[in-house]
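#data-curation
PF: Archiving a pair of folding outputs for the training set. Convention for this channel: one message per protein, sequence first, C-alpha cells after, nothing in between. First:
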Amino acid sequence: MRRFSSLVWSSVGKKILTGITGLALCLFIIEHLTGNLLLLHSDGEPFNKYAHTLHSLGEILIVLELGLAAVFIGHMIVGVRIAMDKEKSRPREMRYYRTANAGKPSRKTWGSVSMIVTGIVLFIFLIIHLKMFRFGPGIEQGYVTQIDGKPAVDLYRLVDESFQNIWVVIGYVAVMLLLGLHLSHGFWSAFQSLGVNHPRYTPVIYTVGIVFAVVMAVGFLFLPIWIYFRGGA
C-alpha cells in the first residue's frame, strides 16, 4: 500500500492522475452541455424528460455522482500539489516574480498561469450550482410536471426562473468564461501529462484544445443569456 501511495504521489504518478481525471471531466462537460442544450426547447418537456431519466437511475446515479465527485476532487488536489511542487522547485528569488502570458512560441498563457485560481472558482461554482438545481426546490415546493402520466420534478421551470435574475445570469456567464480559460490550457496539458508530446501532433492537440474551450464556454454561457432575453416560459 505504501509503495502504491508513493507511486501515485510521484512526479509521474501525479501527472498521469491529473491527465486522466482532466480528460474524464472534459467528457462530463460535453455530456452536460449536450443535455443542457435541450433547454432551447421552449416547452420544457425534452429537458424534463432528460432530467427525469437521470433521476430514475436511482442508486446508479448516486454511484455515478460520487464517482464524478471523486474525480473532480482528485483532479483538484493533484493539481494543487503539482502547482506547489513547481513553486518549490523555482529559485527563491524567482518565486514572487509576476507571471503572465509569455506569448508565442511559449505554451505559457493566461490559462496556464491561472489554473489554480480558475479551478478554485469552478469548485465554488459547482457547490452553488448543485445547491440551486440538483438539491434545490422540487415537487414539494410546487416544481412539478407530468412525465408518462406520473409526477416529476419540473427542473426546466426552476432553471428558467433562476435565469430571469440578471445577477444569476451575469455570475453564470463570468464563471463560464473562466471555464473556457481553464480548459484552454487544461485540455492540451492533459495529453501532455499522459505523455502525448510529439512535434507533429502537439500543435494539433493544442489547437483542438482552444477550439474545445471556446465551444464549451460559449455553449454554456449562451443558455442563460438566451433564456433571460427570451423571457419566462
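PF: Second:
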Amino acid sequence: MRSWFTLAIVLAVLVLEGCATPALRNLPEVTPTERSRAAALDVFQVNGRVAVKYDGQGFSGNFRWQHSATTDNVLLLSPLGQGVAQLMQDASGVVLTTAEQREYRAQDPADLTEQVLGWRLPLNNLRYWVRGVAVPNGGGSTVQGEDQRLAQLSQDGWRIDYLSYRAVDGIGLPAKLRLQSGDLEIKLLLDEWTLPTTPQLP
C-alpha cells in the first residue's frame, strides 16, 4: 500500500537545509493586534516544501494547501512537480487519493496518512501551528523568542520549532518550522502565503 508513495520520490532521507530560501525580513516585536490576526486566520493558502523522516525512510517534495473554516485541500507533489497524493477534508470526513486514483477514507487525517503514506500528518493541529499559534485549549507549553513570537511549542505529543518568520500582509507568519513526534520528523518551508484581501480583524 505504501510502495507507490516511496517509489514516486527519492528513497532517501532528504532535509530542507540544502534548499535555497528567499531572504526573510527582520521583523519587529509582535504586537497584540498582529497576534490576534494570526490566531483569527481561518482562510489561507500556503505553498511550500516538505521533508519527512520516518521509520528509516524519507519523503521530500512540494505541497499546496488550501484551508478554510470548514475544509482542507492538501496536494503533495514530487520534487519534479508530479502529483503524489491529495488529502481532502470536510465535515463528512477525510479522503486521500493516490497518484493511481485509489481513494482511502477515514475520519482523522493523521490516522489516514499513517495508514496510506506511512507517516502521520497532524492536519487538524497543523492548521493552528502553521500560523504560529497553539491549538486553543490544547494544553502544552510554549517558548517565546526575543521578538515575543512563538519559538517552540510542545503540544499533543509534538514538539514544534519555529526557525524563521516572514511578513505577510502585515502579519508575521512562520517561514520554516520543524515538527517532531517520536522518530517522526517533518520539516516545512512555507514559501508562499496567500491571505484573504479583507483583514480578519480591524
